[in-house]
Structures are given as C-alpha cells and as structure tokens.
Amino acid sequence: MNASNQPVEPAAVRAPSYYAASLNFESDYPTLQGSVSVDVAIIGGGFTGIATAVELAERGLKVAVVETHKVGWGASGRNGGQVTGSLSGDEAMRKQMRNTLGEEVDDFIWHLRWRGHEIIKRRVARYGIACDLKHGHLHTAMKTSHMYELQATYDEALRRGMGDDVTLLDAAGVRAQLGSDLYCGALKNTRNMHLHPLNLCLGEARAAEHLGALIFEHSEVLEIVHGPRPAVVTTGGRIEAKQVLLAGDVYHKLERRQLKGLIFPAMGGIVTTAPLGELAGEINPQDLAVYDCRFVLDYYRLTGDGRLLFGGGANYSGRDSRDIAGELRPCIERTFPQLKGVPIDFQWSCAMGIVMNRIPQLGKLSGNVWYCQGYSGHGVATSHIMGEIMAKAITGDLEQFDTFAACKHIKVPLGDQLGNPMLAAGMWYYQMLEKLR
Ligand SMILES: Cc1cc2nc3c(=O)[nH]c(=O)nc-3n(C[C@H](O)[C@H](O)[C@H](O)COP(=O)(O)OP(=O)(O)OC[C@H]3O[C@@H](n4cnc5c(N)ncnc54)[C@H](O)[C@@H]3O)c2cc1C
After folding, report:
1. Closest ligand 1 atom, residue 44 Cα
2. Residue 1: per-residue pLDDT
3. Which of 15, 39, 83, 105 matches a 20 to 30 Å C-alpha distance to 323?
4. Which domains does the chain possess?
5. Mean pLDDT over the full length of the chain
6. Cα–ligand 1 centroid distance for 276 (angstroms)
C-alpha cells in the first residue's frame, strides 16, 4: 500500500515504493532448482551483484546471480537515486591507503570518485537503459560553517581541472535555482547525476542476461560451501562455481564467523508527493538533485513525472519507522512552504549497510570466495566502482582490490547486539558536533 492507500502495481512481491510503481518492466527470473555450474556465482541481486555480473559477463565469463527476493529488492531499488562523487569514507581511506599508495593516494581517490559516473553513463548508453538519468546536483549549506566545507570541495575541483562542472553559489544564487529560502549557499555540480535506481538495476540485469548471465529470484542462499570448487546452496538447488562473490550487503546472515560485527543496518525513509504540475518547475526549475551538508541530512529531487521525492534522517536503531510521511512532511514544508498540505502518495523505508569507518569492505572469505559490502548510504556510484574492482580481482587483476582489502575495519564484539547502539551513539555525538559547527 502507498500512503494514499492505493494498491501498488505491478509487483505484489516487491517492497512497495514509488519506484516499484513506476517500473519499465518487472523482472521474472526463475527460482534456482537442481544443479548449475558456472565460472562465478554471485549472491545478491542489488547493484553490487548485478554490476559485477555485467562486468564479468562482458569479459566472457559464465555468471549466475542468486537473489532471495527480486532483482533490486534491497537498497539498490529503493534509494534516493543520487549519483554523487562522494565515497563516504574518503578521509579514512586517505589515511589508511597512504600506507600502500604513498603520494598517489589523493589521485587514486579523486579518480575513483568519478569512476562510478563513467560506468553508469556508459552502461545506460550501451544497453539503452531508460532510467531518467539527468545531470546536476546542489550540495546546500544551512550555515556559514557548511560554506567552508563547500569552498574546500570547490577549490579541489578547480585544482583538478573540473572548473566547468562546479559553481559556488551564495544565498541569492541558490534562490535562483530553487524555490526555497532555507539555504545560505550551495555548490552546484553538473557532473553529478540522478536517476530511477530500480529501472537502472533491472536494466543492468537484463543486459547481464543478454550477455549470458543466469539470474535466479526467490532463491535465498543458505550456505556457501568452501573448497577447491565452491558452491552456493539454496533450498531447491546448488550452483557450483570456480569463484563465489557474496554481495548481500546488510541483508544476509552468511559467514557470521568472519563477517559478524563489521556492518550494521540503518533505516532510511523516503516519500514521494503527488505529481506537482507547474509547482515542480517553481520549486526546482533546473531539475537538480539536492542534499545538504548536515551529518544527518535531507535529500530530494524531482521524479520523471514531476513528484518531489524526499528522503531524510536515518534510524540507527536498525528498526523501521512506521510513519515516514509524518516524519518527513515537516522537513518538506520547512524547505518548500509552498508545498504545505501536499498529498504524499508513496512512503517506504529500507536498510542500508553502515561501516564504522565508512570505507567499503572488500575481502576474501577463503581462496576463491570473495565479499564486497558497506557503502554507508553512498552506494549508487560506489557499487558500480566496486563491481568493476571485484570483476578485475576475480579475473586476476588484484591491484585496486588489494588496496581496499588492506584497510583495517573495527569489528564490534557481540556485533549483532552492540553494533546498532554504538552506531546510534556515534550519530548522536556527530549531531551534537553539528550543532556546535
Ligand atoms: C533509503 C536509502 C536511500 C539511499 N540513497 C542513496 C542515494 O541517493 N545515493 C547513493 O549513492 N546511495 C544511496 N543509498 C545507498 C545505496 O542504495 C546502497 O549503498 C546500495 O544500493 C547497496 O547495494 P548492494 O547491491 O550492495 O546492496 P542491496 O541493494 O541491499 O542488495 C543486496 C541484495 O542481496 C540480497 N541477498 C541478501 N542475502 C541473500 C542471500 N542469502 N541469498 C540471496 N540473496 C541475498 C538481498 O535480498 C538484496 O536484494 C541509499 C540507501 C537507502 C536505504
């Protein structure tokens, strides 16, 4: 059901959202039954699993993706759709990777920042994926201290020759781009993008399928069998492979001995309004994606059919919120008073995987079983970057994989019980700091 209690079409088995109700096509892959043999078995049909499958299939490998629910069922099909140049854990990465990369670390991170954009643009063009892909972001400041942060990003962009893509705006400059008086400035970035993530994920799955990949839905992997020829096992079937990639992010309970305590769920809520008609052009005439500089931020954009899609806050208890529309309506009306009382047509929430130091976690569980997870709310571009890195690693080019795998992560003892309270405490601390900034 959506917030107006209208039935959600077309996918009864898909978690309800605006995205599920505006699919180009629904996936209908079979359940895994019997025995299958491939080069690489991938667990998880989100961006990480599907993007890696495309990369590997393009390199000529036989791949199978196994998904508990539907392709794009998890965060990949329910997120804000913002393709940002932020890797989330940049600063922690810079510190840790300096050990392996030395002076090259800054160039490495700068290159990675934009690699996901290139992969997504190339893939959308190559496979003709209709996903409302558009350019343009505003990173907005709500107080002067935020402007220092934006100024530093702007200066780096200029140093790196990206001056044509970025503009620093004052309050009047923002007002010319957005129908909101909330901001004292912003960084406009026309390299960043936004899109319909579920249509992208399904389009990529179809591309992988056309390249020969096998995809199975409604097939939960219950066990990974390690050995010279590893296998993934579901209730009804088994896939033997030369290599296995675990790409279930925060949604699986596999391999607890090694993975427990490394990644934690945070629930994010999103709503979409009814179509806004002419008001859409008044509040966001340039169709930009917007996100602010706070630790716990609001983010929004227009959908292809002129609704406001608005996300904000995050619940670090790991539990779902029941009244997302009730929580986000005041934020919408504070940003755009002209939308007071606007009908909310859809509301949903979803878990994202949070890593304590925010560095994506790449590693090996045994000689030929890999994992890749944890983009801490910045996964649209990052999952595509990691898909490329994992495909390179699985086919023998370990350079970038090794750089990530060498990063140290905090493993919270009694992770399932203590992880979320620790996250919640950490976020509370950062929100306190935020008030003092
Ligand atoms: C509300 C929200 C808003 C967000 N907004 C943005 C944004 O605007 N920009 C951005 O960059 N990032 C955003 N993110 C983060 C981004 O969506 C995620 O980082 C990214 O989609 C993670 O991709 P994934 O493939 O690793 O995981 P998922 O998309 O979660 O996919 C994992 C899949 O694995 C499957 N699975 C798990 N266990 C098993 C098993 N045992 N057997 C078979 N299958 C299994 C699950 O069913 C699931 O479909 C947001 C996240 C949320 C929740």
Report:
1. 34
2. 36
3. 83
4. 11-133+195-261+357-406 (3.50.50.60), 134-193+264-354+411-437 (3.30.9.10)
5. 92
6. 29
